[in-house]
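Please decode residue identities from the backbone states below.
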């Protein structure tokens, strides 16, 4: 890609991000006047969230999905797999760091070893060599999960512009996720980092094309289905696949504390 083309691409990306943030700010400012809030403890801002959800659906329909389909049609499957492996490998390093913050040294070392093997023998992570020798990706961790592990409640459900389902806790964790993981760790320049982030998002959207069709066909209320699935999955991840039935159950980290033997 020529320098002028790169400049145009980055400029469009920045303008899109600015518009998304502006829309988010305007909608958030309107939250105080939304009727019927507080009726749902999990989703007290449902009216606002549905507005952002509809905004995201439009953005996906007119921009993101067509780009993802073009990417899928033009880029060979082998190349797309390599791109996915590369970004997944970067995520493995961040998973290892979060596992260490959760005082899970063995799991952290295993994920760190997996990432190092793929970086060294998998051509910088383009090939998943670790999978072939038995080092599987058994989890994906982020800072929102780490905060939840240490007992920080999720707070209300929140739909973010473009990014989609989240909670107040997870949205706060995204700040560190974006700063210290993914493209930010590999590319220091803003232009290269923005382009890499765009490629990562498009590649991720390609992997969801089939699921999106199925979701559209089966969901009577797509908003509720996505909300409930997101909250259930996040809770399961925080408790390592064994979430307690009781919502007021102790924080996950308390499982590290062994009861005194009488």
């Amino acid at each position: 890609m020529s320098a002028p083309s790169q400049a145009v691409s980055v400029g469009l990306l920045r303008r899109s991000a600015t518009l998304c943030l502006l829309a988010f700010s305007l909608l958030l400012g309107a939250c105080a006047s939304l009727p019927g809030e507080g009726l749902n403890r999990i989703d007290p801002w449902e009216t606002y969230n549905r507005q952002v959800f509809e905004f995201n659906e439009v953005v996906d329909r007119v921009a993101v999905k067509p780009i993802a389909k073009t990417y899928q049609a033009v880029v060979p499957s082998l190349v797309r797999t390599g791109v996915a492996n590369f970004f997944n490998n970067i995520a493995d390093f961040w998973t290892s760091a979060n596992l260490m913050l959760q005082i899970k040294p063995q799991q952290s070392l295993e994920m760190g070893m997996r990432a190092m093997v793929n970086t060294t023998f998998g051509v910088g992570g383009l090939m998943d060599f670790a999978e072939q020798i038995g080092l599987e990706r058994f989890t994906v961790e982020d800072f929102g999960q780490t905060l939840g592990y240490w007992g920080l409640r999720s707070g209300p459900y929140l739909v973010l512009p473009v990014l989609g389902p989240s909670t107040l806790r997870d949205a706060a964790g995204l700040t560190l996720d974006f700063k210290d993981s993914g493209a930010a760790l590999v590319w220091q320049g803003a232009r290269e980092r923005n382009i890499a982030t765009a490629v990562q998002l498009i590649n991720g959207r390609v992997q969801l094309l089939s699921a999106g069709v199925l979701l559209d066909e089966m969901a009577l209320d797509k908003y509720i289905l996505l909300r409930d699935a997101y909250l259930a999955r996040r809770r399961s991840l925080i408790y390592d696949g064994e979430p307690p039935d009781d919502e007021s159950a102790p924080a996950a980290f308390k499982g590290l504390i062994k009861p005194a033997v009488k």
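Observation: Confidence is low (pLDDT under 50) at residues 1-39, 258-262.
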